[in-house]
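Appendix C: a fully annotated inverse folding record. The material below is reproduced so that readers can follow the format used throughout the book. The structure is listed first as tokens, followed by the designed sequence.
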């Protein structure tokens, strides 16, 4: 099996979710650091224009969005499982819930610090996270409201851990730990009031330390140029597959576009369909720098449009 190549940058909250997940599985992986803001000239050839962070590469198969990345890690590295105690299925619902919690945390952190945000970063993340009509002055004015939303949901995690569990599912760490830890990591690290808010939750803070101690697996650095060469020298391993129950009747060879199902100002990825099932859709994409790659997306949270 080809190496896991992870395209990310250290302060990326969504990347931290995956880094902790790779720590839980103690995976050896190659670390390619990418820019925080577009353009991303050494990433876009792999992703067909998809600009979000992180992206995972295994040979010429490219996995976009943490949902898709984490599912593939569980498939390729089944043990130790992300579902200790037989929690199959439920962690994916927790993962989706954390998207909504992150929205509140981002509004608190970016709203409270709006006056200090670099202009380019504020413009990019405002559009990406909050849509075309974002207004940081309004978000800043509503920070107290968003703190109440964040505090209530952190309280649910405290209730879970106050029972004496070491991790969210019991004595062993699993996917719910990775996908909730990044919320605490972001709140503490990006908002001046984060430490004070988290101090209300002693069980959560103790758990935070246990998860941090897991680490990020076994990363070693790789250059972007090397990653592109890996893709070019490799063929994607994804088979052609249709799903007879697919409501959109997607089939291999059809041209389709796919984009996040929010108005973040992003351009869709367009290409021939390669693979379809209930959870995933994959498109082929070709260019001179990488040859032909297969780009995987989750169905949930993304809009697929047949040509």
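Designed amino acids, in order:
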């Amino acid at each position: 099996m080809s190496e896991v190549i992870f395209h990310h940058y250290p302060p990326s909250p969504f990347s931290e979710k995956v880094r902790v997940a790779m720590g839980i599985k103690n995976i050896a992986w190659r670390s390619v650091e990418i820019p925080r803001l577009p353009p991303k000239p050494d990433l876009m050839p792999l992703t067909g224009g998809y600009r979000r962070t992180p992206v995972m590469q295994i040979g010429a198969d490219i996995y976009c969005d943490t949902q898709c990345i984490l599912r593939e890690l569980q498939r390729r590295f089944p043990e130790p499982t992300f579902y200790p105690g037989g929690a199959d299925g439920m962690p994916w619902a927790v993962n989706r819930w954390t998207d909504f919690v992150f929205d509140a945390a981002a509004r608190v952190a970016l709203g409270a610090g709006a006056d200090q945000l670099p202009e380019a970063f504020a413009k990019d993340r405002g559009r990406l996270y909050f849509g075309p009509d974002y207004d940081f002055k309004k978000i800043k004015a509503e920070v107290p409201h968003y703190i109440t939303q964040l505090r209530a949901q952190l309280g649910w995690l405290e209730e879970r851990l106050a029972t004496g569990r070491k991790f969210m599912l019991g004595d062993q760490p699993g996917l719910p730990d990775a996908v909730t830890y990044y919320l605490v990591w972001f709140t503490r690290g990006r908002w001046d009031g984060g430490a004070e808010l988290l101090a209300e939750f002693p069980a959560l803070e103790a758990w935070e330390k246990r998860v941090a101690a897991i680490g990020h697996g076994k990363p070693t650095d790789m250059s972007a140029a090397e990653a592109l060469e890996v893709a070019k020298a490799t063929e994607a391993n994804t088979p052609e597959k249709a799903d007879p129950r697919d409501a959109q009747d997607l089939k291999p060879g059809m041209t389709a576009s796919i984009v996040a199902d929010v108005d973040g100002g992003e351009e869709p990825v367009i290409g021939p369909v390669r693979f379809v099932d209930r959870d995933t859709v994959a498109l082929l994409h070709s260019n001179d720098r990488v040859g032909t790659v297969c780009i995987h997306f989750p169905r949930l949270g993304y809009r697929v449009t047949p040509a």
